[in-house]
Each structure stands twice: as structure tokens, then as C-alpha cells.
Amino acid sequence: MSLYEKTVKLSKLIVRAKAIYEAHRESKEEADFFGTVKPFADEVDAAADLWEQEALLFLQEHPQKYVHAAQIVQAADNARRVGAYAHFFDTGKAKFIQSADSALYVLESLDNCIKE
Fold first, then answer.
1. How many angstroms separate the Cα of 99 from the Cα of each of 28, 31, 54, 84?
2. Considering the entire predicted model, what is its pTM?
3. In angstroms, rounded to a whole number, what is the distance separating the alpha carbons of residues 43 and 48?
4. Cβ(100)–Cβ(82) below 8 Å
5. Three-state DSSP class for 99?
6. Please, where are the H alpha helices in 29-68?
7. CA dist 38 → 4, 24, 68 (Å)
8. Angle at CA of residue 61, ends 60 and 66, nearest 5°
9. For 9-19, what is each residue's pLDDT tens digit?
10. How far apart are CA 46 and CA 52, in angstroms?
11. Contact 2/102 with Cβ under 8 angstroms?
12. Class of 3-115 in CATH
């Protein structure tokens, strides 16, 4: 799987996490940890790990003016956090949305670099 495909996959997972979060905030429904929460969090973790490794290699080979290694590491951490907390409606909304949007911004920025 190419870096572009990994970037798209991780972006879709974060968007899905935002939708899950909003749905759980509205319904106040408790999620089944082992049946729902853990599998989704594991999927996001795995995608973030693969993306982070390949993105850092890409930046080593193709240094960018506006995307840096620290941003990649932080975006991967934010993605993992979002994946873990998406099913918990009592998570602070501002922090959750900021983490998700921050990760999406870096993913979009890297995507633009890849396309150039």
C-alpha cells in the first residue's frame, strides 16, 4: 500500500471516528468495549503506525518546506487518541475535535506534498 493510500485510509478512519463520537454524544449510549471500542481503536492504531513510519521515510527522502517530522509524529498520536476516545461521549468535545482536525490537517498537507 502506498503512502497516498495509507494517508487516505487514516483520514477516512478519523472522519469515521468523528461521526462515531457525534452519534454517541447524541445517544449517550455506552459502547461495548471489547466488541466495538477495542477493534476500532486497534484498527486506527495500526493504520497510524504504518502511516507514521512511511510518512517519516518520505520526509527524509523528500524534505518539505511546510510539513515536518514533529507534525507527523503528533498527527499519528492524535489519530490514535481519536480512535481510542471516539466511542466515549463524555470525552471533552473541544479536545476531541481539535485532535481530529489537527491530524486531518497534517494528513491533507502531506497528501498535497505527495501529489506534487
1. 21, 21, 21, 12
2. 0.94
3. 9
4. yes
5. helix
6. 38-61
7. 26, 16, 30
8. 65
9. 999 999 999 99
10. 10
11. no
12. mainly alpha
How is residue 30 written as a grid cell? 455506552
14-34 confidence digits (pLDDT tens)? 999 999 999 988 888 888 899
Phi/psi at 98 (nearest 5 deg)? Answer: -65, -40
* C-alpha grid cell, residue 26: 447524541
Rounded alpha-carbon distances, angstroms, from residue 11 to 87, 90, 115: 18, 23, 16
Helices 38-61 and 93-115, axial angle in degrees (round to 10): 40
Cα–Cα distances (Å) from 19 to 33, 67, 88, 90, 92, in that order, read 18, 27, 12, 15, 15
Domain boundaries, the chain: 3-115
C-alpha to C-alpha distance for 110 and 106, rounded to whole angstroms: 6
**CA distance linking residue 103 with residue 16, whole number of Å:** 13
Letter for the amino acid at 74?
Q
